[in-house]
Amino acid sequence: MELQRRDYPDAEDYWDGNWVTTRFRLDIPQMPTTFLKSLHLGDLLRFRQELARLSEGQQSQATLAMLEDYLFVEASLLPEGGLKWSVKANVRLARLSDRAIMPPLHYDFYADPSSLTIVLEQVESVLMQFPIKSPRTPG
Length: 139
What we know:
By secondary structure, the chain is an alpha+beta fold. Helix content is 25%, strand content 34%.
């Protein structure tokens, strides 16, 4: 995931000011895919908060679910101590045709729990580069 630029750089409100054009790359064997979509930083902030709770043992999974239903990422702690990452993407693949929508691409992979720290640091770095504008107060 590579955040490129704010969609509405002059907007200071929470809703419009936090959309960022993002390049997503999925390295699925036999079908690597890259696509551009807008990501709302509020989704990424929630994911960072859940990753932190997962890292601290306060919950067993963290989910990145987009407002737009094109990407879903979930990290789950396994009973034996490993980490399972699940990724599902709904993408339109232009190389097939403009009207072809593939069934959701879905893959799982397993990693050492230390990967959680790496992903958490990367998400925090992105949020420092693209800070949340006018955050909503919880309520």
